[in-house]
Design brief:
This protein is of the alpha/beta class. The chain has a domain of 184 residues: 3-Layer(bba) Sandwich (FAD/NAD(P)-binding domain). It is built from 14 helices and 22 strands. Strand 1, helix 1 and strand 2 form a beta-alpha-beta unit. Bound molecules: flavin-adenine dinucleotide. Flavin-adenine dinucleotide (FAD) binds next to helix 1, strand 5, strand 16 and helix 14.
């Protein structure tokens, strides 16, 4: 009888685990998952911050309440993960001026309305470009077409919230055609739920893993087919199979390999390919963007910000666009813990990763003193994740830049011989999201099974 095929999966984030489960469901059980860190979950990552469990990576189930059901939402519900519906509608009452105090609601609301009309206009333009098979433009170009030039701190922070806060890159970088309308929100719904559970959002990855990997009585994965602290450094391929080398010097052989590491990792040199990847593949990978989104947590001795209904999210408008712009108090999640979350992206994230946490804390304290007055207490703790510097991530999530065609996008996903690719950055509809990683794993595994079972190995780009 023909020997059952063997498959190595590099990376145990959502996409790698979802790919492995799909293979297992299809009867391909001779798999080996090699994960660089000491845990599964990847960019779904809970950490202890001053005694509470915060999410350094993915936090929201984005896309709930629409015509289709988001599979990640189903899992979160099965696990009864504690989560909170996010209401961003009050931002116009909660936008702080550079020098402190909030903008008058009517003034801020007007600015929001104008900016939202520009987004709607952009969505129309995008649909029109798609229908007429016209080339892509950036979000910035669509704003210019509508004569919208955000200049004041208020206009800039609203623009930041509507664009950068989602895609983690500025309007000039982001593709209009591929970001508006968003498949996530149009297919799965406009709602987003903020997960805050001591088990962590990452427990959805455990949930998928436990369906095909052996666990002990405590539910911990004991399956020898999952190996942690295995950093893959080399992938060699030939028509007969693949050899995957890990940092400990071991070589693992198999018929196929699925690479699920982030786009950022693929754009760097942690993993060497032999022979090297073809030019079209390298170009496709390098042309796409790995964006950076940084969630900074702060702990205070007591609360000095407004709390209660409609206060959860607030904005800080500053002359420098994107300077500590988006704030969230975690009163519902961690009552009485006095924890704030501020988010920065892109160049600000890069800058913060290069400086010490105490410098960052000093900047943030100056901002908070502008917003709330000189008398507020000093933060007692700060946590600044460094997704870009981390060699196993090299950024937060992918963003579709202006001018990359669907043909080029498909090249990112396309297998090279027996080397297959998956990850959030291979999901054309849902790149950048947890559900994108989940679907991507399924897609790649199916592509591989149809090659294995039906000999259908050519990939149509
Ligand atoms: P990963 O999770 O990166 O998995 C790849 C795995 O490969 C990792 O475990 C890594 O350790 C491992 N690896 C890397 N290199 C090697 C190597 N050489 N050898 C072996 N293993 C290796 N999505 C949402 O839906 N909602 C959100 O609110 C949201 N917010 C986010 C906020 C932040 C700060 C970040 C970082 C991400 C956020 N995302 C969000 C995106 C979401 O987390 C990702 O899309 C998803 O988790 C990616 O899964 P993946 O399997 O593609 O990649």
């Amino acid at each position: 009888a023909k020997r059952a095929p063997t498959v190595i999966i590099v990376g145990a984030g959502m996409s790698g685990i979802s790919a492995a489960k799909t293979l297992s469901d299809a009867g391909i059980k001779r798999i080996l998952i090699l994960e660089a860190t000491n845990r599964i979950g990847g960019r779904m990552y809970k950490a202890n911050f001053s005694g509470v469990s915060v999410e350094l990576g993915a936090n929201w189930v984005s896309g709930v309440g629409g015509p289709q059901v988001n599979p990640v939402w189903i899992m979160a519900n099965k696990l009864r993960l504690k989560s909170f519906l996010s209401n961003f509608l009050n931002l116009s009452s909660n936008t702080y001026k550079p020098e402190g105090g909030v903008y008058e609601e009517s003034v801020a609301r007007k600015a929001f309305e104008v900016a939202e009309q520009v987004v709607e206009f952009g969505t129309k333009v995008s649909k029109d470009l798609a229908a007429r098979k016209q080339p892509d433009i950036s979000i910035l170009t669509s704003q210019r077409l509508k004569n919208y030039f955000p200049k004041t701190p208020l206009e800039m922070v609203i623009d930041y919230y509507l664009c950068d806060f989602e895609s983690a890159e500025p309007p000039r970088a982001t593709s209009l055609l591929n970001s508006e309308p968003s498949s996530t929100y149009s297919n799965f719904g406009e709602d987003s739920y903020f997960v805050s559970d001591p088990r962590g959002y990452e427990s959805v990855v455990h949930y998928v893993a436990q369906q095909f990997l052996t666990t002990n009585a405590a539910g911990q994965i004991t399956d020898p087919r999952l190996q942690l602290k295995k950093v893959v450094t080399e992938i060699s391929r030939s028509p007969r199979g693949v050899a995957v080398k890990t940092e400990d010097g071991l070589v693992h052989r198999a018929d196929y390999v699925i690479v699920s590491v982030s786009l950022g990792v693929l754009q760097n040199d942690l993993i060497k390919f032999h022979p090297s990847l073809p030019q079209w593949k390298i170009l496709a990978l390098d042309q796409f963007n790995m964006a950076i989104y940084t969630k900074i947590f702060l702990k205070f001795p007591y609360k000095f910000w407004p709390s209660g209904n409609g206060t959860e999210f607030f904005l800080y408008a500053h002359e420098k666009r994107g300077y500590y712009p988006f704030w969230q108090h975690l009163e519902r999640e961690f009552p009485g813990e006095n924890v704030l979350l501020v988010t920065v992206t892109d160049d600000e994230s890069r800058r913060l990763e290069q400086q010490s946490d105490s410098e960052t804390k000093a900047e943030i304290m100056a901002v908070l003193r502008n917003m709330f007055g000189k008398q507020i207490p000093e933060a007692t703790d700060i946590l600044v994740p460094r997704w870009l510097s981390n060699r196993f991530f090299k950024g937060s999530y992918s963003n579709w830049p202006i001018g990359v065609s669907h043909h080029q996008f498909n090249q990112i996903k396309a297998p090279v011989g027996k080397v297959y690719f998956t990850g959030e950055h291979t999901s054309a509809a849902y790149y950048g999201y947890v559900h994108g990683a989940y679907f991507a794993g399924i897609d790649t595994a199916k592509l591989m099974t149809s090659c294995i079972k039906r000999g259908a190995c050519s990939y149509n780009i």
